[in-house]
Amino acid sequence: MPLVVLLLVPLLSPALAWLPMEDWGSGNVTTSGGGLECFCSAFLPDTTFPAERVQHMQQVTTGLKREVEVQMSKLVHYNGKLEVYLEELLDLTVRVAMLETSSDDYIKLDFELLKTELREFEALVSQLRDSLNTSSPVLDSLYIEIHNMTIIVNQLETFDKSNLEVIRIEFAKLQWKLEECQKDLDFIKPDIGNCNHTGILTVSKPILIQMNAHLNPGYLYGGWGKDSKPVRGYESMYWYGAYSSPSVYEFYLYSDYDKLIERSSFTHHGLPQGYEGVGNNYIVHGNTVYYQAANPFRMSKLNLTSSGYSHRQMTKASEKYTYIYSPNQFLDFSADEKGLWVMYTTEEAKGKIVIAKIDEKSFAIEDEWTTSAFKPQAGNAFMVCGVMYTTRSRDMNTEEIYYSYNTKTGEEKHMSILLQKFQEKFVNLHYNPTDQRLYMYNNGYFVSYNVKFGKE
Q: Residues 210, 261: contact at Cβ < 8 Å?
């Protein structure tokens, strides 16, 4: 039996003969029918080189190297940005601290700039956290600090907004005082009440007193101004009324200019049913409101002291012709150095403006003058020293005083004196002899103009 095994060894491959014994398998020999059979088990090593695995590992290594380079580049980039933003953040911290102690020194633009910078800081920290894909105590603390600072700025801005109205009011008061000084510098004016001049020579640029005075853009109709013949103690009083339609049903009175700007009236008059007015060309003269009533169509007045009403029907006045900017403006009241007037038109005048002098005691018409100014083409009209001036539109932002009629001489003139407007349409324009100003209600805007007269 051993002899047979030894005889089989030379028959194997030479490479196998040199393998160590542990790489060989076990074998056995059996006989069957006198014949000899030999079974051997051999384990051959894998001699193939793993080229595909090596190539895959090289690709993976190259990809990882590139990713590391990208992340390193990001870190360098963010580190540079972080240094810059940390310096700005330090400056921002100081500014917020100053804002907490003296918020009055900051305006809306400052708040917007602070909020924008804080949003940039927050976005940068979020990018860093996402890129690092990990939580960092430093970044978390920085993020919380920025969030807290944002809350502080928003609170301070809210506090500031609550005071914006006060700031606006104080600014309007200052603007008015500056305009008063400018008026004295720009306009060499005759004495108040004196008509020794050749008429209006020019008007100043518009002086904006109030925007959207009723805090509602729908109040396009109304009027404002001063008493043109104030009673003692009410020389500084202002009046105002505004409506969403060409009607008249209430007035507000203010003790002085400051109260007007602050919207703080000392009294309010609501017209009772049956006494409501239409149109918007009303004025306050001698502590009395003169306005146009309807149903029936008539002149009306309300004494602000006694709250008594008086009326006078206008049988000749036509309800057919009105000014171009507003419906129902059939009676246009005006007051000047010569007294109280009302302007309208008649069927006989065929739309041309008629000037009528009102006797204040009897509330009756003293005299009439028919002019050549066609009312449906006019924007408005007013009286100065017994002379009627009529306006018309030049463009959306410009009104032109183009015509005048002198009730003393009957003289008519054509001219071109421009008035700048904030809105195209206006429904109340009148002159006040106590300060020689024009007052305009311009779609919710309180506008006034200084008047300059020609020397005689």
A: yes
